[in-house]
Amino acid sequence: MNRRPALPQLATVTLTAVAALTLSACGGDSSDEVAGGGTESGTVKSSSPGVSANADAGRPKIVLPADLTYTFEWPKTGDKEKDAVLSDSEQSIKAVDLAIANQDALDPAYLFYYEGEAAAGTEQFIQNYVKNKARTTGSYRFYDPDVTVGDDGTASFSYCEDQGKAYVMYLRPERVKETEVTAQSYVIYHTSLKKNEKGVWVIQKIDSQSGSAKCQP
């Protein structure tokens, strides 16, 4: 995904899978720069990131660092399956930030929501943060959702992300790399999902583009 500005070596105009999770708004200006990112409604008030069991289809309950905040402008549609796609997509975004916070490219929370190409790309994206001893911080906003659910248990979901107030935090020594807001701070995502045997909408493919005209304010 082009989400969470990441390391320059992952930067491309269009990214797949977690490459989509990458480096736009908070992108750095040197080869070891990463960029901040996150996702979720409201502020997660916890300084101890982690996961606990969730009785609902085994979904992990995600607890993120207190300095990560998320706004999801994704109103309910009234359609059960579409709303389930929106809900699981929120959790999948948070799960990637949790893996980055835990500095674990094989963190089980994100692997719960990503499969195949999307999982492989996401692992690479997270590993770049681990390699650079960095994680995401700041505020993220998600908006303009467009979800379509098929009769065959698949769905497509597109949405925008505002990374203007999202940054990368280097851990050793701890410092935040703040960057200016530019057109690249606005990213569009296109995801392909499948409903698995547990009833969870898992991501199989992600494409993203920084500087999307559709997402500009």
Task: Write out key terms for the chains shown.
single chain; 217 residues; alpha+beta; 8-stranded mixed beta sheet; two-stranded antiparallel ribbon; 3 helices; 34% strand
Shape call: globular
Which stretches of 5+ consecutive residues score pLDDT under 50? 6-48
- Radius of gyration over C-alpha positions, nearest whole angstrom: 15 Å
Binned, the helix content reads: 10-25%
Nearest-integer average pLDDT: 81
The profile of the biggest β sheet is: 8 strands, mixed
Q: Topology as H/E string?
A: EEEEEHHHEEEEE
β-strand percent reads 25-35%
Task: Tell me the total number of β-strands.
Answer: 10
Tally of helical runs: 3
- Spatial separation of the terminal alpha carbons: 21 Å
Content-based structural category = alpha+beta
Question: Short summary of the structure?
Answer:
It contains three helices and ten strands. The chain has helices at 80-102, 108-111, 116-131; strands at 14-16, 42-43, 50-52, 61-63, 68-72, 134-149, 154-171, 174-177, 186-195, 201-210.
Q: Explain this structure to me?
A:
The chain is an alpha+beta fold. It contains 3 helices and 10 strands, in the order βββββαααβββββ. Strands 1, 2, 5, 6, 7, 8, 9 and 10 form an 8-stranded mixed β-sheet that branches. The chain has a two-stranded antiparallel ribbon with strand order 3-4. The radius of gyration is 15 Å and the shape is globular. Mean pLDDT is 81; it is low at 6-48.
Secondary-structure blueprint:
Elements: E1 14-16, E2 42-43, E3 50-52, E4 61-63, E5 68-72, H1 80-102, H2 108-111, H3 116-131, E6 134-149, E7 154-171, E8 174-177, E9 186-195, E10 201-210
Parallel strand pairs: 5-6
Antiparallel strand pairs: 1-10, 2-5, 3-4, 6-7, 7-8, 7-9, 9-10
